[in-house]
Design goal:
Length: 696
C-alpha cells in the first residue's frame, strides 16, 4: 500500500530547496532525502489506517503546516504569534471540546504535549531541523501510549550531515524571523544544533470597528534552541540524545494581558534495527515547563482596563519511559510488544479579587499529579500477497493523586487567613483499549482499507485543577472529571496512479465522557473556583458530557503536472465533519448542538512550481467553515477564505532570495467572540522578504 507524501513550502518567511515529491511507497519515502524515520521501521499495521505525511523542510511554522491536513485543527484559528499559548491544543475529526490536545504529538518518539495542560508550545520547534510530520487519523494508537483519542502526529528530526544553513526575514509590523541549522559529523556520530528566533510588533486583535483606547498591538518574542546527537553503538544499535529549550512572550493586545511560557526537554533513546534478529527501542525523557499569565477586565466602552486575575507561577514536570520489542516470528508476521509510563505533576499559583491593579485580595494554590502505566501487544499478518490484517490491544492503569486547592486572604482585616483548604481524594482506574484493521491491494494502484478502534485520555492537571478566563468569561476546573473514551471505525481507499494520487476516508467516532467547558450561569456574581464574573461575562465549568458523535469524510489529492510544466505539482484536500453533542443534567442545554470550535467544512488547495536550486513560485488557498465560539452555539465565528503566496530566486548555489505574503486579501479570520460580542481576528495581511544561505 502507498502513503501520501506532500511537499508544500507555501507560507514560510524563507524557504530553500523544497523539491516536490510525488506519492511514493513508505519504503521509498523513508529513503528519500530529508525524510528519516528516527525510531524502529514503520510498522506493517499502519497500512490499515488513514495516514498522511508532509515535508517540513521549510521555515514555516509547524502549526500552520499541519493545518493543511484536512480535519486537523487547533482549538483556535490563530497561530502561536497571537493566540494564548494555553489554547493551542491539537485535535482531529471534530473531537474538540476544550484546549487540551486529543491527538498525541511526538517528536522522535517523545510526547510533546504540555505536562500540565495538554496544549503544545509551538514556538519551540524549528521546521528547518525537522524532515517530516506523519499524521495517523483515528484513535487507539496502541503502541504510542494513551491519549490518542483523535489520532497521532509524529515529527521526525532531519539527518543533516555536514552543513551550515542560515536564514533571516523581515516582515510587516517590524516582524523578524531568523534561524540556524548546524550539522557536523562528530566521531562516528552526528551532531545537530538548531536555533530559531521570532519577534514582531504584532497587530491589534480586536476588529477595527470595536476598538477603544485600551486596544494596542499584541507584541510577541519567541526563541528556541535544540541540540541532538546520534551515534552508533554497534552495527545495529544507535544512541539518540536530545536537549531542547524555548521561551515565549506574547501579549493579547491590551494592558494586563501578558503571558510568558518557557520550558526545557531532554531525552535519550536506544534503537536496535537488526535486519534478522530482535528489534527493540528504549526511551526515557523529562519535560520541565512554567508559564504565567495576566488577565485584564476591559470596560464596555473599551476605554479603560484593570487587572482582575493573574496566574503568576504555573510550574509542571513530565517524566516518562517507553520500550518496544519486535521478535523475529516469521516473514509474514510482525509482532510488537511493549510498555510505557508517564507521570505529570504541577500546580497553579494565582492572585484574584484585585482592589487595584497591583493589590490582590486573595490568593489560590491548586494542583496535583497524574500517572499512567501501560502495556501493549500488536500483530500484523500478511495473510495473502494482497491482504494485510492487523490487530492489537493495550491495558493502562491510571492514578490521580495529591489533588488540592487552597485559598487565603492577602489583606486586612485577616491577612493569611485560610478561606479554603481542600484535599481531594486520590483516584485510580484501569482502561482496556484495542484496534484492528485490514488493507487489501485490489489492484497495483488501488488499496482498500478499514479499521476500528477504542482509545482513552486522562484529564490533564489543567482541566482538573486550573481555572481560567477569556475576556469577561470565567471557567472553573473540576477535580472529579472522568477519563474520556472513544470508539470509532473507518473505511477508505487509496488510488496511486502515475500522475494522480487520491485518498478517501469515511469515519464515525463516539467520544464518551468528553470534557467540555459547560456554561452554567451569567454574571454579575461570585462563583466557586473563579471568583467574581462581571455582567458582561458567563460562568462555566469543565464537565464530562455524555458524548460527542463525529462522522464525516476526508479527501486528499495530489497531481504531478510535470507533463504540462516541468516541476509543477498541485494538491487539494477537503474534510467534512458532522459533530454533535449528547448531553444531560447541567449540560442539557447543549444537547444536539455542535461542539465549540468545530467547523463542518475545511478545504485547501496548493499549486507549486520549484526548480532544484530553489527558484520557484507557490500559491496556497484555504477555506475554513463557520464554527461556534461557545458550547451553546450562540456566538458564531464566520467562515474565512485566505490566500498565501511565495516567490523565490536562487542567486547562486548558496544564496536564495524570497518574497512571501500571508493572507493576501486581508481576510477577516475570526478567532474569538466574547459574551459582549467583541470579536478577535487572526493575523492580517503580512509581507515578508528574506535571504537564506547554505554551506556544505
Amino acid at each position: 500500500m502507498k502513503k501520501s507524501i506532500l511537499a508544500w513550502p507555501l507560507v514560510a518567511p524563507v524557504c530553500l530547496l523544497s523539491v516536490p515529491v510525488a506519492a511514493e511507497t513508505v519504503a521509498d519515502a523513508e529513503a528519500a532525502e530529508g525524510i528519516t524515520v528516527t525510531g524502529l521501521p514503520l510498522p506493517d499495521a499502519d497500512d490499515a489506517y488513514s495516514t498522511i505525511e508532509i515535508e517540513l523542510d521549510t521555515d514555516e511554522r509547524i502549526e500552520n503546516a499541519l493545518r493543511t491536513v484536512p480535519g486537523l485543527q487547533q482549538f483556535r484559528r490563530s497561530d502561536a504569534r497571537s493566540a494564548n499559548p494555553t489554547s493551542q491544543g491539537i485535535t482531529i475529526r471534530g473531537l474538540g471540546g476544550n484546549a487540551s490536545s486529543r491527538a498525541v504529538l511526538l517528536l522522535d518518539g517523545v510526547p510533546q504535549a504540555d505536562p500540565f495542560g495538554g496544549w503544545v508550545a509551538w514556538p519551540g520547534y524549528d521546521a528547518l531541523a525537522l524532515s517530516s510530520a506523519r499524521i495517523t487519523r483515528g484513535g487507539g494508537s496502541g503502541s504510542e501510549g494513551s491519549g490518542a483519542i483523535a489520532g497521532t502526529i509524529e515529527l521526525f528530526s532531519k539527518d543533516v550531515g555536514n552543513l551550515i544553513e542560515l536564514g533571516a526575514a523581515y516582515g510587516s509590523r517590524n516582524s523578524v524571523e531568523a534561524d540556524l541549522l548546524f550539522g557536523r559529523e562528530l566521531g562516528q556520530g552526528q551532531l545537530t544544533v538548531s536555533a530559531n528566533y521570532a519577534r514582531g510588533d504584532g497587530f491589534i486583535p480586536i476588529i477595527e470597528s470595536q476598538r477603544g483606547d485600551v486596544d494596542r498591538q499584541a507584541e510577541y518574542e519567541q526563541a528556541g534552541l535544540a541540540v541532538r546527537y546520534v551515534a552508533p553503538l554497534t552495527d545495529n544499535t544507535e544512541l539518540q540524545a536530545n536537549v531542547r529549550a524555548f521561551t515565549d512572550d506574547r501579549e493579547r493586545g491590551f494592558a494586563f494581558s501578558e503571558n510568558h511560557n518557557d520550558g526545557a526537554d531532554a531525552s535519550i533513546r536506544l534503537v536496535n534495527r537488526s535486519d534478522t534478529g530482535w528489534q527493540w527501542s528504549a526511551l526515557g525523557y523529562v519535560q520541565i515547563r512554567n508559564f504565567d499569565v495576566s488577565f485584564g477586565g476591559v470596560a464596555a466602552d473599551r476605554n479603560s482596563v484593570s487587572r482582575v486575575f493573574e496566574q503568576f507561577n504555573v510550574p509542571s514536570t513530565g517524566l516518562g519511559a517507553r520500550f518496544e520489542v519486535r521478535p523475529p516470528v516469521g516473514d509474514n508476521v510482525e509482532l510488537r510488544i511493549g510498555g510505557d509510563w508517564r507521570r505529570t505533576e504541577g500546580e497553579t499559583n494565582e492572585n484574584f479579587f484585585f482592589l487595584d491593579d497591583d493589590t490582590p485580595r486573595r490568593s489560590r494554590n491548586a494542583g496535583g499529579s497524574t500517572a499512567t502505566y501501560g502495556a501493549f501487544l500488536e500483530a500484523s499478518v500478511q495473510a495473502t500477497e494482497a491482504l494485510t490484517l492487523t490487530g492489537g490491544g493495550r491495558i493502562d492503569f491510571w492514578t490521580i493523586d495529591d489533588g488540592f486547592r487552597r485559598e487565603i486572604e492577602l489583606i486586612n482585616p485577616f491577612p493569611g487567613s485560610v478561606r479554603t483548604d481542600a484535599q481531594f481524594d486520590n483516584r485510580d482506574g484501569t482502561e482496556f483499549t484495542a484496534r484492528g484493521g485490514f488493507a487489501f491491494d485490489a489492484t497495483d494502484q488501488l488499496t482498500l482499507r478499514g479499521a476500528a478502534y477504542l482509545g482513552w485520555r486522562l484529564p490533564t492537571l489543567n482541566e482538573l485543577f486550573r481555572p481560567f478566563r477569556v475576556g469577561p468569561d470565567a471557567t472553573a476546573a473540576n477535580e472529579l472529571l472522568e477519563p474520556e473514551r472513544v470508539k470509532g471505525a473507518e473505511l477508505g481507499l487509496d488510488w496511486d496512479g502515475e500522475n494522480v494520487s487520491v485518498g478517501i476516508t469515511v469515519f464515525y467516532n463516539e467520544l464518551d465522557d468528553a470534557v467540555a467547558n459547560v456554561t452554567l450561569d451569567s454574571g454579575p456574581g461570585l462563583f466557586p473556583g473563579v471568583g467574581f464574573v462581571s455582567g458582561a461575562g458567563v460562568f462555566r465549568q469543565r464537565q464530562n458530557l455524555d458524548s460527542i458523535e463525529s462522522k464525516g469524510i476526508e479527501i486528499d489529492t495530489e497531481f504531478d503536472l510535470s507533463s504540462l510544466v516541468e516541476n509543477l505539482s498541485a494538491r487539494a484536500a477537503y474534510s467534512y465533519v458532522d459533530a454533535e453533542v449528547n448531553a444531560s443534567g447541567d449540560a442539557a442545554a447543549v444537547n444536539g448542538l455542535r461542539p465549540a470550535q468545530i467547523p463542518e467544512h475545511n478545504a485547501s488547495a496548493s499549486l507549486l512550481w520549484e526548480q532544484e536550486n530553489g527558484t520557484g513560485a507557490a500559491v496556497s488557498l484555504r477555506y475554513i467553515g463557520n464554527q461556534f465560539e461557545d458550547d451553546q452555539n450562540s456566538r458564531r465565528l464566520d467562515d474565512a477564505f485566505t490566500v498565501d503566496g511565495r516567490l523565490a530566486f536562487a542567486v547562486n548555489d548558496r544564496l536564495l532570495v524570497e518574497g512571501r505574503v500571508e493572507n493576501l486579501f486581508d481576510a477577516r479570520v475570526e478567532t474569538a467572540i466574547s459574551s459582549s460580542n467583541i470579536i478577535e481576528r487572526a493575523f492580517p495581511r503580512t509581507f515578508w522578504i528574506g535571504l537564506r544561505t547554505r554551506i556544505e
